[in-house]
């Protein structure tokens, strides 16, 4: 029961922003998390990437993609893959719902009523499925490793084929010269 309770408290705060304008947010906790996250948001570079800041036993994780910023604040004990899985899930859902639509012109916190509960749902989903997500990530890592080994093997095979062709040409040249 203790582990389940601890997992339920992994996620502290989450938001989606367009640039530095927070469009939707969710938290069940009181504290200065929104203020700290907003300060971090002001300092983020504009490029598509992931950023993590540590502060007071919490990590502030950001995913920047096409002018939008997805953020989640978690306890520092939460595995990194949990934050990444959450951010990717929120990004995909938000883009499906609002991509090229009203999010492009929405004012601050105007999507709270619609998307705030979705942020909460994604937090609950990731918490409930963390073990499966970890297994999937391990399998993906293994597949990636196998893929790189296969590409390396293909490259070696092609090089060997080129060497065999060169040897065949040299043998042909020697045969011609011998005649």
Automatic annotation (TrEMBL):
> V-SNARE coiled-coil homology domain location, by residue?
135-179
Stored InterPro entries: Longin-like_dom_sf, Longin_dom, Synaptobrevin-like, Synaptobrevin-like_transport, V_SNARE_CC
Q: Which PROSITE patterns match?
A: LONGIN (PS50859), V_SNARE (PS50892)
| Record's keyword annotation contains 4Fe-4S | no
Alphabetical UniProt keywords: Coiled coil, Membrane, Protein transport, Transmembrane, Transmembrane helix, Transport
Membrane in keyword set: yes
The protein's superkingdom reads Eukaryota
Function in brief? Involved in the targeting and/or fusion of transport vesicles to their target membrane.
Write down what this protein is called: Uncharacterized protein
Lineage, highest ranks first:
Eukaryota, Viridiplantae, Streptophyta, Embryophyta, Tracheophyta
């Amino acid at each position: 029961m203790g582990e389940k309770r601890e997992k339920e408290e992994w996620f502290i705060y989450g938001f989606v922003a367009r640039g530095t304008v927070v469009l939707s947010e969710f938290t069940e906790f009181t504290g200065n998390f929104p203020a700290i996250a907003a300060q971090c948001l002001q300092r983020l570079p504009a490029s598509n990437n992931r950023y993590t800041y540590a502060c007071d036993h919490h990590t502030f994780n950001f995913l920047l993609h096409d002018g939008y910023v997805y953020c989640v604040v978690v306890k520092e004990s939460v595995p990194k893959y949990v934050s990444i899985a959450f951010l990717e899930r929120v990004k995909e859902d938000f883009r499906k719902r609002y991509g090229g639509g009203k999010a492009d012109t929405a004012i601050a916190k105007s999507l709270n009523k619609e998307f705030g509960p979705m942020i909460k749902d994604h937090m609950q989903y990731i918490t409930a499925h963390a073990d499966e997500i970890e297994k999937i990530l391990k399998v993906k890592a293994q597949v990636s490793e196998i893929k790189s080994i296969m590409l390396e093997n293909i490259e070696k095979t092609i090089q060997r084929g080129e060497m065999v062709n060169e040897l065949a040409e040299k043998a042909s040249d020697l045969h011609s010269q011998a005649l």
